[in-house]
Amino acid sequence: MTSQITRTGIYPGTFDPITKGHLHIIQRASKLVDHLIIGIAPNTRKGPLFSQEERVKLVSEDIANMHVKHCEIEVEAFDELLIHYVQRKKAQCIFRGLRATSDFEYEFQMTGMNAQMEPDIETVFLMASDKYQFVSSSFIKEIHALDGDISKFVTPAVLSALEHKKNQRKS
């Protein structure tokens, strides 16, 4: 009797907010594992616009509306060292998106530290599509705050949530 091995991957991030670039990485990562967990980190040092709960809700909504998913995708918050989270979830790999060379140095250091702490967990880098190479959550928030059009970079649900936040700040 052969047993089926389930390959689990984790795509961690702040996702403040989630962008179409993130969704493209998620879709591609879903081709490589049987179960993909999108781990939403609190990352308070970045001063997120959305609470962790709001980000889980937004990411969950966008995942539910994805037309193409190649595996089961789960979204949840975590608040611990990434490598401990990965171990606890019994995942075999961590997915990371790379946009430009500026991302590489930080990701390289993080991957090295993770490999020292847990050599059996692989980090898989997925290059951002040309279309989304320069899209970042920080740029999205800044452009939106200055009344720029971000509709081609985020889903309608995220755009609506950003509008709601902007209106809350005005009142």
Structure, described:
With 171 residues, the chain is α/β, with parallel strands linked by helices. It has one domain: HUPs (Rossmann fold). Helices cover 42% and strands 18% of the residues. The chain is built from six helices and five strands, in the order βαβαβαβαβαα. It has a five-stranded parallel beta sheet, with helices on both faces.
What is the CATH homology-level superfamily? HUPs
Order of strands, main sheet, comes to 3-2-1-4-5
SSE-based structural type: alpha/beta
Report Rg. 16 Å
Low-confidence segments: none
- Give me the number of helical elements: 6
Looking at the chains present, what oligomeric state does this protein adopt? Answer: single chain
Element-level helix/strand string: EHEHEHEHEHH
What top-tier CATH class fits best?
Alpha Beta
Helix content: 40-55%
Number of separate structural domains: 1
Portion in strands: 15-25%
Which whole number gives the mean pLDDT?
A: 91
For the sheet with most strands, the description reads: 5 strands, parallel
Count of extended strands: 5
How far is the N terminus from the C terminus?
A: 64 Å
- CATH architecture descriptor name: 3-Layer(aba) Sandwich
What name does the CATH topology carry? Answer: Rossmann fold
User: Can you tell me the overall shape?
Assistant: globular
